[in-house]
Here is the input.
Amino acid sequence: MRDWAKQPVKTPVSKQQLDAFCTPHIKNKINSLFGSDLPPEEAAVLSQIFSTILIRRNIPQEDDILFYLEDDLRFQHNPFLFSSMEDAVERIIQAAEENEKVLIFGDKDVDGITSTVILHNCLKKMGIDVQWRVPVDNDTYGLSIQAIDDFAAEGGSLIITVDCGISNFEEIKHANDNYIDVIVTDHHNPPENLPEAVVIVDPKTEDSGYPFKDISGAAVAYKLVSALRFSNSDFYNAELCILDIAKKDDGTYSVNCVKIKNLIKIKELHETIIPGKTSFYDLKLPSFLQSQMIYAWDCEGTKKLLKELFGSGIDFYLYDLRGEVAKLIPSFSTKSIADIQNQSLIAKYHPQENTTINCLYNLYITYTNMMIARKFPENAEEEKKDLQLVALAAIADIMPLKNENRLFVRAGVNSLMHDTPRPGLLELFSRLRINTEILTAKDLSWTVTPALNAAGRLGQANCALELLLAEDAPTRERKAEEIFNLNEERKARLVNISGQIKTIATESLPEYQNKMCVIFDETIDKGLTGNLANRFMQDFGVPSIVFTKNDNFYVGSMRSCRGLIATDFLDSFGDFFINHGGHNFAAGFSFEEEKYDSFIQKAKEICSKLELEPEKNEIVIDAEIPQAYLSPSTFKIYYNLEPYGCQNSDLILKTSKVKVVDAVKVGKKEPCSLKLLLDCGKYKFPALFWGKGDLLNTEIVVGQYYDILYNMSRNYFNGTITQQFEIIDIKQSYE
Here is the structure.
């Protein structure tokens, strides 16, 4: 146990910090999270604790705070912010119109599998002749020459990669030579030289245009599908302008315009006009508005101002935005734009952007989305099903749970809990005994994603795809059983090989300056190298590489930490690898068998010059909660910060001098866990201390008082949901 008993919480939060953070809107929003059923004093306490935790976690007020407090998917980023998205959509529409054969090529992990399913379902609904392929058995990562040749032999003409492709330079060149176009959709770090694909959609490329770089491959596929759905509407590729004119107190006129395409601002114009001194023909306004549909909120008022400025000889045809919006939201028929600005939710998070023209732009987006939802009501259900998979991918691929990833995971988990899970997932949940009534992102990361990943790790990724795509119950039941058995096999193999190579791992440390753990063993399954690298990274606190032999080449995985970017480390080998790629903290590679000695020598050479960031072993406490503040409602603090995961670590709370009034060992396998009942003053709470049954009657004695570190969870038993603490650490109270 670590020495934390007298350790304070994270940096104390001052009243000035709290006041600056809690703008009126944010304060009201946080208060609303704790419900109107609580006494005002208790709600105020919980709101303050919640706010201080957000501040300690350095959640920026104007950026990520929105994604912590809001669930509405309208706050996600527009797919057409990808500079290449329109090109991807056009090429797929062409494939549909010309009856082309299309191949979706995905990766073998959860992200690749879910990406493939999301895009496959969409293209199939479009009537496209679509097939899918993922690496199986001893296939290498990424698009392969063999897959291209097989597809060419079938007369295929378009390949779309999902969760891979950005590093497949030679393979895509081979596809081009065979008159096959390739659209790359990926999210991995791009190499210096990009492949010559017809379209690349990857948020990490320099010119992607996308505002958030850390989405999963499935999220990229979901963005492409969202753009394809939008392309079915009359709004697709329609250019228009929104015009706002206002007379200022000094007698000048402010003219503001935005030009929009696919709900994206593509151009803006802001001019100040002095009556009698500014010629209409000297302005940029005429050319900006030429040949455009022009929308204004108050058409008559705008025409009057135009006449004041330019006389009756200049005339524009204006479309009535207020009238269009009022057809969907009747109350807006009498509202001024100032009224709407005051009500704008997004403006409350970005008050500096709350201009009239931005308000009109956001109104137009709302109007468009409502119109599309009316015309295509099926999109909402399809989106829910897609987001169930996007949530799984974000969790499995350890995407940072910030920005729009929080919207995706929340929406996906909520859909799994409150809607009907996709049939394939429902079958798998049943086999894994997953209770969707109390489902969390942690539950998915501990049970569902490892099971789906097991199929790919053991060379049978197609099994997971068949589960998720199967339209008949018997197939789903059979595939769920296969995946369950594959996962059991994976766990057994992992336990066996971990013990077998632990000595190799330990002995490798001094060879690499204690800066890296490098393990080679021919008996390792190539699908387990990532699991093992991650395990040794956690055990030793240094970046770890695990590789094995696969026919006449070596294949391996790297898991990194302490500031070392995995892809940068592999890039420093130059053109050494057959292929390599990945993320900042996880990457893969392969190289020829004759290069083994060179690989070891080069790795040692790089490590000799490597500087890692210091290890962080301290427990970081988010908040200390006195017993007087503990109640069943306190759990809302924990739930409102979900989902937990990468860059939103599990909440760690501290409470002192709680009395253990009961303690029993639970669990059939060693190490047993400890189930406690804690007296916290007004309330008693059950608690679980995982794997610590041996502490009973030694370090933990019924009747004694303890300081505890804990987080919170729900437990489901015999149809009843109870709230409980999960103990992280415990120390006897001495004061």
Notes: The two ends are 19 Å apart (CA to CA).
